[in-house]
TrEMBL record:
Species: Mannheimia bovis
Bilayer-crossing regions: 6-24
Presence of keyword Membrane: yes
Protein origin, superkingdom: Bacteria
Keywords, comma-separated and alphabetical: Membrane, Transmembrane, Transmembrane helix
Protein name: Methionine/alanine import family NSS transporter small subunit
């Protein structure tokens, strides 16, 4: 794989996981 492909994949995964973590952390605050 090329460097650009690896960087793109890492960035995409970071956005996906970041969004999941943000959603999980924001849910309890809305319930309280």
């Amino acid at each position: 794989m090329s460097t650009a492909a690896i960087i793109t994949m890492v960035v995409a995964m970071a956005i996906i996981w970041g969004g999941l973590i943000f959603a999980i952390k924001s849910l309890p605050k809305e319930e309280q």
